[in-house]
Amino acid sequence: MFMAIRELRHAKTRYILISLIMVLIAWLVLFVTGLAQGLSSDNASSIQTMNADYLVLQLNSEQRLTRSTLEHHTLEEVKQQTANAEATPLGVQMSTVTSDYNDKRIDVTFFAINPQSMLAPQVVEGHMINDSSSLEAVVDRSLKEKGLKLGDVIHDQASGQAFTIIGFTKGQSFSHTPVVHINFADWKSIHQNRSVKEDELAFNAIAVKGTKEIADGIKTQVSGVEVISKSQSLQGIPGYKEEQGSLLMMVAFLFIIAAFVLAVFFYVMTIQKMSQFGVLKAIGAKTSYLARGLISQVLMLSIISLAIGIGLTYGVSLLLPESMPFELNAGVITICTILFLFVSLLGSLLSLYRVAKVDAIEAIGRAA
Hints:
Layout: H1 2-10, H2 12-48, E1 54-58, H3 72-81, E2 86-99, E3 106-112, E4 123-126, E5 136-140, E6 153-156, E7 162-169, E8 173-174, E9 177-182, H4 184-189, E10 205-209, H5 212-221, E11 225-229, H6 230-235, H7 240-272, H8 274-282, H9 287-319, H10 330-347, H11 349-356, H12 360-367
Parallel strand pairs: 3-9, 5-7
Antiparallel strand pairs: 1-10, 1-11, 2-3, 2-6, 2-10, 4-7, 5-9, 6-7, 8-9
Helix pairs in contact: 1-9, 2-7, 2-9, 2-10, 7-10, 7-11, 8-12, 9-10, 9-11
Keywords: Cell membrane, Membrane, Transmembrane, Transmembrane helix, Transport
Organism: Fontibacillus solani
Domain MacB-like periplasmic core: 17-195
């Protein structure tokens, strides 16, 4: 450790340049990861934050909520299998709305829920709808950026129905569109051609909060349905899998590139110091001692670079516009930190091998 610190002080310029490269790599990795997480949240936060464990969909719907259609009798069958759990219907309808505020068209997704159920989102402004609400909606607060406010009226272009905004939620989006929560009475009003009686109204899914045993029971006892977890339902959101796959591949390649870059830098520096390593070995220094010094250097540079990279990432995120999805929580930072340290140590393996194989007499002779 002390040898590593003394060497860092002795060759400050060289190590500052290496640290700068490591900072840029760490910054880029964290920034792309934050964008990936932000896009994931913007695409599916309504499902990610849903207080449910499983979703029951129509069989062969390919795990897509918008392709599933369930009838009221299916809900009754599912409830029979979930006596010790909660099951509630969910209606999903992607649409376009306009407002009295302006004529700009806004893509949204209607979520029909039971306002007293586990699917009711947290309201951050205004108040929640109830079963007796008539043509009232709680919308994601991203619509505030489009000029909407409490009391404004939005018009569904498909059905012609007008809904008054009585509350705003946070982090409720589906397929990159803000979610508009309504009750099932209003769900009927935008699907008047589908059924006559409200208790026969079709919906898209049944949210279930319970154990895997309950989910397996629904699979075997209720015909014509499939039961998927929330994570599986995310893969069914249009474009989610492809978008996240591309971004995760970018992050993976950044880590691979980081390993190669760091390996080259540390190896070149190790080659330049072969004579010093030879002298140290000649006077009795063990290979393990030299290896600890090299690893200490790598860890110190990596930790300092990561700290600066994290600070830069959060600093830049404060400058990003609200419309740009960016999310970086402590859990993601921890994972990235561990991976970056692992990649840094991996990149030093070639240098460690070279140090272990150095011949003291040959190195001293080359220095002479």
